């Protein structure tokens, strides 16, 4: 393969990756805006029924297995707290306090929480909702 083709293919691959990143960025912004609309509707419904809304952040497996980017976590937490919605952060309440937070996942592998994990989450939500 000649050098011209290699450069050509490199440029094409670069353009494709750049386009995909731009699409993901637009999609993420759309998703965040949709999320905000849903939270606002939920808040209005709860207030209309004289109830209280709690937002429970459940951390995912990858937060403890890979380098974690908290951009969206911070964005969502700030938005929710600006609306005066109680934000229950299970990461801070449970996972952060553990030496090995992966122990709350079955066999310390990707998936839902295990029995111990869900039990701790339920106890934490119950305790914090009473405060």
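Q: What amino acid sequence fits the structure above?
A:
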């Amino acid at each position: 393969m000649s050098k011209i083709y290699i450069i050509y293919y490199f440029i094409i691959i670069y353009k494709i990756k750049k386009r995909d990143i731009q699409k993901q960025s637009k999609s993420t912004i759309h998703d965040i805006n949709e999320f905000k609309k849903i939270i606002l509707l939920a808040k209005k419904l709860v207030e209309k029924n004289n109830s209280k809304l709690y937002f429970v952040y459940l951390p995912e497996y990858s937060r403890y297995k890979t380098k974690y980017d908290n951009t969206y976590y911070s964005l969502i937490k700030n938005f929710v707290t600006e609306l005066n919605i109680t934000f229950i952060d299970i990461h801070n309440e449970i996972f952060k306090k553990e030496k090995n937070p992966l122990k709350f996942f079955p066999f310390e592998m990707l998936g839902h929480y295990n029995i111990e994990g869900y039990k701790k989450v339920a106890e934490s939500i119950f305790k914090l909702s009473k405060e």
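Q: And what stands out in the fold?
A: Confidence is low (pLDDT under 50) at residues 1-6.
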